[in-house]
# Entry
Amino acid sequence: MPSFLDPLAGFGVSFRTIFKKTMTESYPEHPHPVARRFHGRHQLNRHPDGLEKCIGCELCAWACPADAIYVQGSQNTEDARFSPGERYGSVYQINYLRCILCGLCVEACPTRALTMTNEYELADTTRASLIYEKGDLLAPLLPGMEAPPHGMRLGDDERAYYLGAGLVSATNTSGGGAESAAGQEGGS
# Structure
């Protein structure tokens, strides 16, 4: 091919796209919707009465391949109860400078305390502001919830609390409930 045609080949992309309709995205005003199962910013969930679901087990920190999560567990007392179990996460930090948003921490959580939202705008101007503390990660209090610390409102013991007070009382009044049915099924 002669060398005098090389500039025409170089401008080929320009000539092909010059008459196409331009598509402008107005991102800050109208953000693009994300997929339903998109992994975005983390959230620490609460029970329906406002107590935290996190029990400070640190399994999410162990599962994180980027070492972006730091959890420090503490003991609950009857005077200061933050979660229904024996422990709660007194310090919870996620470093979004390291986080790769893989979701392994969510899979490792035994109480479904940690989930991922669809929020993807995590950019900021300082490095320190990208280390989210427990207060930044906790789900907001909904109507009917009470800010911890307070006593358990959904049941008298941990089992009733995790299963739901209404479900446990209904199975206990029916004479054994799901436990006896499961035992009979396994023994048959």
Observations:
- The radius of gyration is 26 Å.
- The beta strands are 42-44, 69-75, 87-95, 114-116, 131-132.
- Residues 39-175 form a domain with the Alpha-Beta Plaits fold (CATH 3.30.70.3270).
